[in-house]
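G., the chain you wanted modeled:
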Amino acid sequence: MSKIGIVGWVVVFWSLFGLVQGSRAEEVIAPKEILIGDTVSFVGPYSIFGGLSSFGTKAAIQDINEKGGVFIRHYKKRIPVKWITRDCQSDPLKVAPLTEELVLKDKVHLIGGHFEVPTLRQGTAIVAEKHKIPAVFGVGTYEAWVAMRNAAAVPWRHSWAFGFSIGTPAPKGDFRENDPGYLMMPTWLGALKEYADKTNKKIALFALDDPDGRGWYQAFSKAAKEMGFECYGSEKEFGIYPVGTTDFTSLIQEWKRAGCEILWGNAPAPDIGTLLRQCKAQKFFPKVVFATRGAMFQQEIAGWGGDLPNGVLMEIYWTPDIKNAKGIGNTTPKSLAERWYKENKQPLPQGIGWNYAVAQTIFDVLERAQSLNSQDILKALAETDLLTIWGRVVFEKETQFQRVPLAIGQWQKTDKPWKWECPVVFSYNKNLPVTGKIIFPKPWD
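Predicted structure as tokens:
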């Protein structure tokens, strides 16, 4: 064989050897785990969203890891998922530095995994943008979140959010377009309309003075007026109260003098409980009470004392009866609820369905991204169209927001050990069926 021929074979051999070694090197650098990190309110006023409802995130991780993890084509293998958390203690000021820890110390591949209120997500979004790491999480109201997003000094391109719209309609062409079952305002007012003629249509509004409460107050008062309701003092934002308020006497006496028969507000559970106790003590007995944010979980309303929760209306986003929904593997909404009851022996928090769906979406996105590269993940997020345990997930192009279904529930007495349950009593959404009859007027005995 000539020298040229020998040299040629040597070149071919080393080229093939290099390819094999390169392939092996690529397999070696595959991470042992996909690291997802998030700040969670394990204590404080919002611990119900984080600590208690994080069961849903953990259940989704258990389900995907039972399959070996998420299949990442780039590594030609399934990789288990690990969720790393930091307790932000319901404090917005702690979110950004703790998220920085997750990025710099724990080297997470993605941020998110569960729900918090909008004010606890600003820091998440800022850090995600700073480090160019995709973040997927729940935020609550569309209006409050989008306002914060639009006001950001640097656009939040790396943050993708789950939540509900108060009244902003879905964009043209969206599968939720013209569907009131994905809009809180029409759903609320639809429930109220059922009994409007039995009241004087005078509404006493209250809201905590934060982005969530203020955004809700402004949107609701405008829509209610357009439907013929009188919102007492709304032109002066009467009823918006500062953080730390413990005495609502001045509000209650004004509402009482004005003859308001409907009480409606957006506040944390302890504030709602305090307000209702003072209403009863001062003999202000509205016929209808709606309470958003702080009345969504039995574990919170039970702390109001006595029978104050009886007849209080609130929003429902997920129940085990939800239709057109499926989890990972054989998990269904009902089987997820059964797992909760078996492991916790407590009343079911609807947040477990929300958080499961957020995690489920993340896993699907990672598999379609085919890698852990941020740009690949962002592209997959934009293309998401997935049936989850919370129904269909499609993010809006402009806002990167996933609108969730909703209905109206009402706290009612039950013979179960936890005393209170909340059946769906009004719904426009075909996937959240009515499961109980509304109590009117609210009992105050």
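The first strand starts at residue 34 and ends at 40.

Shout if anything looks off.
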